[in-house]
User: Fold this.
Amino acid sequence: MVHYKLTYFDTRGIAEAIRVLMKYANIDFEDNRFKVEDWPKIKPTTPTGKVPILEFDGNYLIESAAICRYLARKHGLAGKGDLEEAKVDAIVDQHKDFFSQSFSWLMIKFGREEGDEEEQKKTKFLPAAEIYLPLYQKYLKESGSGFLVKSGLTFADFIVSEFLITLRLNAPEIIEKYPEILQYIDRMKNIPQLKEYYATRKE
Amino acid sequence: MVHYKLTYFDARGLGEAIRLIFKYANIEFEDIRFDAKDWPKIKPTTPAGKVPILEFDGNYLVESAAICRYLARKHGLAGKGDLEEAKVDAIVDQNKDFHFLVAQWIRVKYGMENGNEKEMKEKIVIPQSEIYLPLYQKYLKESGSGFLVKSGLTFADFIVSEFLITLRLNAPEIIEKYPEILQYLGRMKNIPQLKEYYATRKEEFNKKCAYDNRK
Assistant:
């Protein structure tokens, strides 16, 4: 059996989707977490100076979406058939764009960066939210599966839902305008294999 | 035989890597191009309001990397084995980060957005180049194949080399400090299946800026 070691901050961030995927698929892994303030010490000990990093069998992978896709392909979570796999990939890339527009605002809000929180929220996050949240609603409506694509749960759901949870915590008034998205988050949290994990983790 | 139709600006931008895959693999496709100024007219006629878009068999795909990966998988251009496929994906995602940061500066440089070009170059382009260009050199040195990963040419090479060409056109003094990267760009242009295609792309075309269609 492969021994996986995932290294990341002791936060949800961009690695939580990997953790959730591994929990869902019942993959044993070493959940190696460190405190944000310890990063300067830990960084030089990692193969590439970047996290999340997944190490196994003398190999390593970086980039959260690439790691998710690698694991997802082995566990039926990458979409059904090449066309749907490409749709899953497209959703994950669109999410990355949304995330990029939201990143500065969130970093300022969390006190990890200097800047004008209101200005970033207004000029970058809100316009992006008005594009991407309706798009996610559209995917949810069209799939008919309760998840983002037709065949059901994929790694796109783990990635996108984590970010939507973060947005609900930090801009509830925005997310609450989208009822299908609120229901989707609840649906994720009620997936039998994950219910306990979601209930006990800190957000 | 599948009839592919690719729609994108008449520029390299994010669509060119897709065109290169088609050309390299010798797949026929309808190469629909339009001028940036016509985007507002064309946008509502597209299935998702976004380009590039690949249409075929009544289906469509958006997002350039997803389109590249879809075609690459069918033509042995996605990497060899699941581990290398993940490395290819990681390189493409890293390039997306680099591209995102530099693209802001390019839009300002081309007068498409307001901003301080010199300041952005100093504060964003140069520091980010000092992170990513050594990284690409490292991949090229370690692969031993002349391309980004060990098994040879993959869609990561099409995506990354196109961006490096853009960087070279706009900030040559930055790229010219990296000899392996310059050799790599030369190597891409000499790929037998693509040599002629690259040669027909004139500098004027290469410099065209694809409109930012996130809006």
Summary: Chain A touches chain B at residues 59, 61-63, 65-67, 69-70, 73-74, 82-83, 85-87, 89-90, 93-94, 96-97, 100, 127-128, 131 (CB under 8 Å). The CA atoms of residues 101 and 124 of chain A lie 5 Å apart. The longest strand of chain A covers residues 4-9.
